[in-house]
Amino acid sequence: MLKALIPAALALLLAGCGLAEVGAAGATAATSAAEQAKQGKETEARVQRQVDAAMQQDAANRKAAEDAATQ
Fold first, then answer.
1. What phi and psi, each to the nearest 5 degrees, are found at residue 22?
2. Rounded to 5 degrees, what are φ and ψ at 16?
3. More confident position, 58 or 71
């Protein structure tokens, strides 16, 4: 709740001196950067899951090939 009030109070204080637009642009850029970071982490996690699955499949294929070679 307090975090929501701080930007609003800051915007009101800066509105009188013309810095409100600069502050709003900065806040928008920060939000965009935070969203991009979140998406990057999600992509990284998805790629890691794919790599793990590929490694498991490769291990299973090697085991199957070894089992077939020893029979």
1. -65, -45
2. -70, -25
3. 58
**Contact, 11 vs 24, CB < 8 A?**
yes
Q: How far apart are CA 21 and CA 27, in angstroms?
A: 10
Q: Look at the block and give the residue holding tokens 């998406």.
A: 39
Nearest to 20 by CA among 12, 31, 29: 12
DSSP letters, 45-56, are HHHHHHHHHHHH
Question: Which residues lie closer than 8 Å to 14 by C-beta, 6 or more apart?
Answer: 20, 22, 23
> What residues does each domain of the chain span?
19-69
- Report, in angstroms and rounded to the nearest whole number, the Rg of the chain calculated over CA atoms: 26
pLDDT tens-place string over residues 14-55: 565 555 555 556 667 777 888 889 999 999 999 999 999 999
